[in-house]
Amino acid sequence: MLHLEKVVSFLDTYLDIQSSKTDESWNGLQVEGKSAVKKIMFTTDVGIETIEKAIYYNVDMLVVHHGLLWKSVDPSVKGANKKRIELLLKNGISLYGVHLPLDKHPEVGNNAQLLKILGFKKYKPFALYNGAYISFIGRTNRPKTIIEIENILKKDLGAFCKTLSFGKKKISTMAVCSGGGGYPQLMEALRADVDLYLTGDSTEFYHLVKDYQMNVICAGHHATEIVGVRALAIVVKKELKVDAFFIDFPTGL
User: Fold this and answer.
1) What's the confidence (pLDDT) of residue 1?
2) By three-state DSSP, how is residue 253 classified?
3) Given a cut of 90, is residue 144 above it in pLDDT?
4) pTM of the full predicted structure?
5) At 21, is the pLDDT very low, low, confident or very high (cuts 50, 70, 90)?
């Protein structure tokens, strides 16, 4: 059994949450539950469904990538937000949210994990956001085809890939931006002259990609962001010797 403060301190330090002060998310402990922590559930998003599952498993803490508190969102405790917070407090469940620090972490981060799963090694920083890089470009000595990469994403992440295959047939270099990568990251990938740009959300850049003969895979916002919390659960279980586990709640998005 651990004290909540010890778990929060470990997460704050390991994830270096102070390095992302410009993040839209209020990273860190968002709802304080019971002081004793025996079991922690990790998942990508917080919602009534995920909180009810946490209650079912009798966990003391919920760690998510997309939490409840965002700088651009109305913080009023009413409606669905009221029900979420009531469920957490009534059952003594703490909520810890971590957004950009989990995207950019060099080991358990969403982007680092995507490269690792696909067999690419981190090569150099990528995806400049608010003055800091949140991702990486990876490379491999064993080039893969687009289909091979799609199959890994489908098998490991349950991803439904939207692919624009206008570039090289063999992929040796890849830029990744989990979740909502958009035009700035696409153009950065273009300037970096990588063989593939992998992101989550799709947007209307078909003709741009075709004209510049690029390869792009949009594997889904959710699917590309299950890997960080999944890897973090393993680290927490090992380092803190606590019952920690990951559950996915696929959204199809």
Assistant:
1) 81
2) coil
3) yes
4) 0.96
5) confident
Q: Please state which CATH class domain 2-98 belongs to.
A: alpha beta
Q: Where are the domains of the chain?
A: 2-98, 105-224
Task: Give CA–CA dist 61/171, Å, rounded.
Answer: 40
Query: Domain 105-224 sits in which CATH superfamily?
Result: NIF3 (NGG1p interacting factor 3)-like (3.40.1390.30)
Instruction: Tell me, letter by letter, the H, E, C secondary structure of 58-87.
Output: CCCEEEEEECCCECCCCCCCCHHHHHHHHH
Section 228-252 average pLDDT: 97
Residue among 203, 170, 167, 172 at smallest CA distance from 185: 203
Comparing 2-98 with 105-224, is the CATH topology the same?
yes
For the beta carbon of residue 182, count every other beta carbon within 10 angstroms. 12
The reported pLDDT for the residue numbered 238 is: 98
Non-local CB neighbours of 191 within 8 Å, separated by 6+ positions: none
